[in-house]
Structure formats: C-alpha cells, structure tokens
From TrEMBL:
Membrane protein topology class: Multi-pass membrane protein
SUPFAM superfamilies: MetI-like
Family of the protein in this entry: Belongs to the binding-protein-dependent transport system permease family.
InterPro entries reported for this sequence: MetI-like (IPR000515), MetI-like_sf (IPR035906)
Major place of residence: membrane
Regions crossing the membrane: 36-57, 96-115, 127-148, 154-174, 195-226, 246-265
Gene3D superfamilies hit by this protein: MetI-like
GO biological process, one term: cellular response to sulfur starvation
Source organism: Paraburkholderia eburnea
Domain ABC transmembrane type-1: 89-269
Localization annotation: Cell membrane
Protein name: NitT/TauT family transport system permease protein
Length: 283
C-alpha cells in the first residue's frame, strides 16, 4: 500500500500530517493577510473621506483647513518633542488602570455573589439595572461636590462606568458553571477555598475577561469628559487646552491619539482573552 506522502506528492521523509498542517498554516496566513489588507483599506477610506470633507469645507472657511489630516500630522513632532503628549498619555493610562482595578475589586465579588445566590440576584437586580442605566457623566456634579476637584472624582466616574459589565459577566459565568463540577467538588469534601480556586475561578475566568474588555471600552469613552473636571493632565485636559489656545490642528492630533490608544487597549484586551480566556474554557 502506498503511503499518504506518495499520494499527496509530499517529499520523502515528510508525512501527510505535516503537509496538512503546512497547508492549514498557509491558509491561516492568507486569511490574516486578507483581514489586514481589508482593515488598512477601511482606514484609508476614512482618512480619504476626512481629507475630502475638510478640503471642501476649507473653500468657504480658511479655519476648516486646521482640522484636516495633514495639519494634524504636522503637529505630532511638536507634541512629541515637548514631551507634553507622553505626559498626558501617562496620566490618562494611570487613571484607566486605577478605575479598572477598583471596578474589578467591587465587580468580581459582587457578580460572584449574584450568580451564586438566586435570592440575592432577585433582590438586587432591579436596583442594579436602574443604576446601570444612569450615565456616569450624570454623576459629575455630585462627584465634584462630594470629592472635590482632581483625581478622586475621575476615579469615581471611571469605576462607576466600568463596574457594570464586570458584574454582569461574572454573574453569567457563575450561573453557567456545570453543576456536575460543583457536585464533584462537594462529594470530594473540597473546602470553600479549594472550590473557589479549582472550580469557580476557572469557570468564570473567560467571562471576567470579557467583562474587562467591555469595561475598557467604556472607560476610554468616559475618560475624556471625566478629565475635564479640574485636573491639569490627561488627554481630556489636553483637548480643552488645545481648544482654549485655538490650536485646532493639535486638537485633531490629540483626537487621533485617543482613537489609536483606544484601539491598542482593546487589542491588548483581546489578546489577553485569547491567551487565557480560551485556555480556561477548554479546561
């Protein structure tokens, strides 16, 4: 009987499985390249539409030219050379990290309890749904009056914005854990700590990471208006500063930075989920 490598035309010493793996890898590489090219084409189309729109508007107003992509690009060297941009980026990322940490500190335990105890879910669900539907920005005056100006009200608004997707995702993860695993742990006389670490944590890890990724997107949206609450650093503050100085080209450059950083944060969260969340799901 002839071997698979002979039928497939594979070189001597190369198995049919290796050929299949190589073809699969090539197919995945082509798909990744296609997705990348389509993504770049979409970005190019948006930039082109932006440039055409500004060019048409600048015929009637010379001020409109400052909002174009070329004007924004020319301001980047100045922003970078003065170290202003990286200082404000660092301040914004620090606030994102603190807000996300507080949201996880409150959201994961609360979501676990809601998912674990049906009575608690029934009692808290209406109140949580009501609070979740209130825009975090609606709390801005109360946050300033209660916490003053500076970082504390910003941390409060970011935490309030990010906690809900984490609570909901964690509760959903607890409720979807296979009851047979819980029964197995109880039948083996596992302690509460062992049940938590070996059954619940692996069971909800993917859901928690999903909630974190959603929370990061919400945090990045709320961050810019939150940084207009009397702070003297951050990308939101830089937007106001550019507006007050009538530096509209710099303003558009900062807008581009905000979009790029948000994209990178979401990409990082997606990579972490694919690295750890999918592994936990398979386990």
């Amino acid at each position: 009987m002839s071997s698979l490598s002979e039928h497939s035309g594979a070189p001597d010493g190369v198995s049919g499985g290796q050929v299949v793996d190589a073809l699969a890898d090539a197919g995945r590489a082509r798909r990744r390249a296609t997705r990348w090219l389509l993504g770049m084409a979409g970005l190019a189309a948006i930039v082109l539409a932006w440039w055409i729109g500004v060019a048409l508007a600048s015929r009637h107003s010379a001020l409109a030219a400052q909002f174009g992509p070329l004007a924004a690009w020319r301001t980047f060297p100045e922003l970078v050379s003065e170290d202003r941009l990286f200082t404000h980026i660092g301040a914004s990322l620090r606030r994102i990290g603190v807000g996300l940490a507080w949201a996880m500190l409150f959201g994961v335990p609360l979501g676990f309890l809601i998912g674990r105890f049906k009575t608690l879910e029934t009692a808290l669900s209406p109140a949580l749904q009501l609070l979740r539907m209130i825009s975090p920005l609606a709390w801005m005056p109360i946050a300033v009056m209660s916490l003053g100006v500076g970082d504390p009200p910003v941390y409060f608004l970011l935490t309030f914005a990010a906690v809900w997707p984490i609570v909901i995702s964690t509760a959903a993860g607890v409720q979807q854990i296979d009851a047979r695993w819980v029964q197995l742990g109880e039948s083996l006389a596992a302690t509460r700590a062992e049940m938590l670490w070996h059954i619940y944590v692996p069971g909800i890890a993917a859901h928690v990471l999903t909630g974190v990724r959603l929370a990061i997107g919400i945090l990045w949206i709320v961050l810019v208006p939150a940084e207009m609450l009397g702070v003297n650093s951050g990308l939101g503050f830089l937007i106001l500063d550019c507006r007050d100085r009538l530096a509209y080209a710099e303003l558009m450059a900062v807008v581009l930075v905000i979009g790029a950083l948000g994209f990178l944060l979401d990409t990082a969260a997606r990579v972490v989920y694919q690295r750890f969340g999918t592994v936990r799901e398979r386990e």
